[in-house]
């Protein structure tokens, strides 16, 4: 298989991460993914497992990893011996050659269709952390879990963000654990879902970081010119309402599909280019959100590749920045590197071209439409 690798040369991107999912049967070997990850300027990778082939391939690269412990293991991790065995096999084995910095215990567990797992989450997190302490790894590896934005009961306006009442009993002790262990709160945020659900009311410009009038939040007297920032600040508000205003927030997933079903309005290469291109531009500017201007954006883009075996609508298989053959899924302004490895431009100087900021929608954004974006 021949690969054309692309170097993503954007003005110094501030700590961008990439989700590396592998629900596919046609992906390149991890050894071939290493230069591709580096080519887009990503210095962090988030896995949904602890794939030994990936962790070995990235040894010595200085790329930081969040490894995942799947929902199917949560019940077993309530046993400390099992947790210790898992950490030894899936984390300690690869340190320090591979820079594992965090373990994500489960994914969107509190909003998962198997509600029995909710009670397993915190004990599993605690046991994984205890295992790290026992192995003297707790100072270099944190323990957290990623949540869906559906954990919010209210999200508009952002200043009124609040967690669902039925989840507070589970969330409060988890937040206490994160705070005491100096671990971040992970949230998966997708403005695409809001637009897909209500394209006639939600402004496409607002969700794609395009020029727009935006919205004003009378609760905090702040202005929002894009939906992702509004979503993030709603999470900060929800955390603050429970007494965890200073808990760091990571956007563990966000992205835009380049293809979808007929009813998946907006899933196009053009919109994916605008969303991810403008997102990376914002990250490179080291901007915080309106409510947290001094907290840099900590974001993992979803995803590295289109994954052809993912279930669900067509969009689920088309979030990748890249196709399995190593070429971009759409033109995001990469400067090409030929299969021989030589840079087509003959230079390593910055050559990134930001997507044009032409407004793609003249719709006014009705504030109330934000109520459905989680």
TrEMBL record:
Choose any GO biological process term that the UniProt entry carries and state it.
Answer: carbohydrate metabolic process
Q: What is its EC number?
A: 3.2.1.39
| UniProt xrefs under InterPro entries | GH, Glyco_hydro_17, Glyco_hydro_17_plant
Keywords from the named record: Glycosidase, Hydrolase, Signal
Pfam families, per the entry:
Glyco_hydro_17
Q: Which reaction does it catalyse?
A: Hydrolysis of (1->3)-beta-D-glucosidic linkages in (1->3)-beta-D-glucans
Q: Where is this region: Disordered?
A: 338-374
Highest taxon listed in the record's lineage: Eukaryota
Q: What Gene Ontology molecular-function terms does this entry list? A: glucan endo-1,3-beta-D-glucosidase activity
Compositional bias annotation for Low complexity: 338-348
The UniProt similarity line reads: Belongs to the glycosyl hydrolase 17 family.
Protein known as: glucan endo-1,3-beta-D-glucosidase
């Amino acid at each position: 298989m021949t690969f054309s690798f692309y170097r993503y040369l954007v003005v110094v991107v501030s700590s961008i991460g990439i989700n590396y999912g592998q629900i596919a049967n046609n992906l390149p070997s991890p050894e071939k993914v290493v230069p591709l990850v580096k080519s887009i300027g990503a210095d962090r990778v988030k896995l949904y497992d602890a794939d030994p082939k990936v962790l070995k391939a990235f040894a010595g690269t200085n790329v930081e990893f969040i490894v995942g412990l799947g929902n199917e293991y949560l019940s077993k991790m309530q046993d400390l011996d099992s947790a210790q065995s898992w950490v030894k096999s899936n984390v300690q084995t690869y340190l320090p050659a591979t820079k594992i910095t965090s373990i994500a215990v489960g994914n969107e567990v509190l909003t998962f269709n198997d509600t029995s797992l909710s009670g397993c989450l915190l004990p599993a997190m605690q046991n994984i952390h205890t295992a790290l302490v026992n192995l003297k790894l707790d100072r270099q590896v944190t323990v957290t879990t990623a949540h869906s934005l559906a954990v919010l009961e209210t999200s508009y306006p952002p200043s009124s963000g609040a967690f669902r009442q039925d989840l507070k009993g589970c969330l409060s002790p988890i937040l206490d654990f994160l705070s005491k262990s100096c671990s971040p709160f992970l949230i998966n945020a997708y403005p695409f879902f809001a637009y897909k659900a209500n394209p006639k009311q939600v402004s496409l410009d607002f969700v794609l970081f395009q020029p727009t009038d935006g919205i004003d939040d009378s609760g905090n007297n702040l202005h929002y010119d894009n939906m992702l920032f509004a979503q993030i600040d709603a999470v900060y508000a929800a955390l603050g309402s429970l007494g965890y205003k200073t808990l760091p927030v990571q956007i563990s997933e966000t992205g835009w599909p380049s293809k979808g079903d007929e009813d998946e309005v907006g899933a196009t290469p053009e919109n994916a280019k605008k969303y991810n291109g403008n997102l990376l531009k914002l990250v490179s500017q080291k901007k915080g959100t309106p409510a947290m201007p001094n907290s840099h954006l900590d974001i993992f883009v979803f995803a590295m590749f289109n994954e052809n075996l993912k279930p669900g609508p067509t969009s689920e298989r088309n979030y990748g920045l890249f196709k399995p053959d190593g070429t971009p899924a759409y033109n995001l302004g990469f400067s090409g590197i030929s299969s021989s490895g030589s840079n087509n431009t003959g230079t390593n100087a910055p050559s990134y071209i930001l997507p044009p900021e032409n407004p793609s929608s003249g719709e006014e954004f009705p504030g109330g439409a934000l109520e459905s974006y989680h």
